[in-house]
């Protein structure tokens, strides 16, 4: 008899982690999926105050009321939809929110439609929930064409995952397309899970939440990327009451509640001064421009990323590119880590300093471009 669950047989530990482990400590890291800034000081101070004031016990399962109120207002102000404080769950990062949403929605064998290339967790969490991940092909500009979506839907499909701005492509889907996805989802009875963790990191275009058009949406966000708080493990989700009731069952038993200290930090992040967000955004934009300009000068052509902090680059031989650069001290991520349609690409993260981006460009020129 097998010792471990068969569903895990198909799951590999993240390819991205493996690459980090193979790289030396002085490597230039274009593999990172997190901002390289410190968490803003006022947020750190709020966490210290919470510890000193003794806010170190379990909280309400859905999260402290003040934080849920701040999230409610944020959804209304920035995302154009209304939920009550009861319709919000604070989670351990967006990761937990994705997990409990899929656990609550999927029966064994149900299909989950996932833009491919897409964030690696969507495929894996779908399998853990017993569902079947189904790749949605993107066009050459990484746009999900609404007609492609409509053509791909099968009777057993239950969920559509959207992620704009996207990891790994940096694509920001436009308002008309988002509206079209919501209409299609409605016609076919699909629930949308909208992962909006890169909402504040947009350089071209603007953010549109599917929940501003339709009801059957689980909207997921986090303070992780917006406030450089990945290690605090603090995310949140808003959805109609019947969804929340079911997702809370999973949350209550796998997590109880999100970290009390991180909840106070997140409250300060969401309600305190927001200039830290715009200065991080400005810095990412400057780095994006540096990387885009450098790669163009080396003769690469690619859709210019509009958001997040990734550039998805087509290369002749993905694994040769990744290993050649790794041998020369630059970490990148193979596109195939993000689904089968990511094959033939590499993801370059610009969550690293401008000086490192320039050094990396030089190395790409020396060990890749000159050899071709
Ligand atoms: C698209 C996307 N969603 C969710 C997450 C996970 O976010 P968190 O750290 O809040 O769990 C990431 C992290 O890389 C991501 O890129």
Structure write-up:
The chain has twelve helices and twelve strands. Helix content is 41%, strand content 15%. Helix 2 crosses helix 9, helix 3 packs parallel to helix 9 (260-271) and helix 4 (93-105) packs across helix 8 (241-254). The N and C termini lie far apart (51 Å). Helix 5 (120-128) links the parallel strand 3 (111-116) and strand 4 (132-137). The strands form three sheets. It has a seven-stranded mixed β-sheet, with helices on both faces. Strands 9-12-11 form a three-stranded antiparallel β-sheet. The protein has a two-stranded parallel ribbon with strand order 1-10. 47% of the residues are buried. With 372 residues, the chain is α/β, with parallel strands linked by helices. It folds into two domains: 6-39 and 275-369, Aspartate Aminotransferase, domain 1 (Alpha-Beta Complex), CATH 3.90.1150; 41-271, Type I PLP-dependent aspartate aminotransferase-like (Major domain) (Aspartate Aminotransferase, domain 2, 3-Layer(aba) Sandwich), CATH 3.40.640.10. Bound molecules: pyridoxal-5'-phosphate. Pyridoxal-5'-phosphate is lined by residues 33, 93-95, 119, 163, 167, 195, 197, 222, 224, 230, 235. One of its GO terms (biological process) is amino acid metabolic process.
